[in-house]
Specification:
The protein has two domains: 68 residues; 44 residues, no CATH class. The chain has four helices and four strands; from the N terminus they run ααββββαα. It is elongated, with a radius of gyration of 24 Å.
């Protein structure tokens, strides 16, 4: 009963804030793109008395980017679209006990799709 109330309140909050999977993905893409942008490393040049782009020993311009932020955004996007295979073991009882393996897989897949999971992880039915 408490879980249902929390789910209802969460849904209401998402609707009020207009947050859905598409909004999250669009923002993750933007974060990833921003984190991958080259940003010049600036240093103070006392001769020019101004900030200039740093260079390495061979005279090449030095750039930086936010690899941690980019990796995290890309990982979340990849997880959402099901790029990373994860094995999930479910111990299902109750009304599902009479289902054949393929019926159970179809039921679980339908639940994943209802939850917005694009690619269902590999499902292994364990009897017992």
């Amino acid at each position: 009963m408490v879980a249902r109330a929390v789910a209802i309140l969460t849904t209401q909050r998402q609707e009020k804030l207009e947050i859905d999977a598409e909004w999250v993905l669009k923002n993750l893409v933007e974060v990833s793109q921003r984190c991958l942008q080259k940003i010049p490393v600036m240093t103070f040049d006392p001769t020019a008395k101004s900030m200039v782009q740093a260079t390495d020993e061979e005279g090449r311009d030095v750039w930086q980017f936010d690899s941690k932020g980019a990796n995290q955004a890309l990982q979340l996007i990849g997880k959402h679209i099901g790029m990373f295979s994860e094995n999930i073991n479910l111990n299902v009882k109750h009304s599902y006990e009479q289902l054949k393996d393929d019926e159970l897989r179809a039921t679980i897949q339908a639940e994943f799709e209802r939850l917005g999971v694009k690619q269902v992880p590999h499902l292994k039915v364990i009897n017992g």
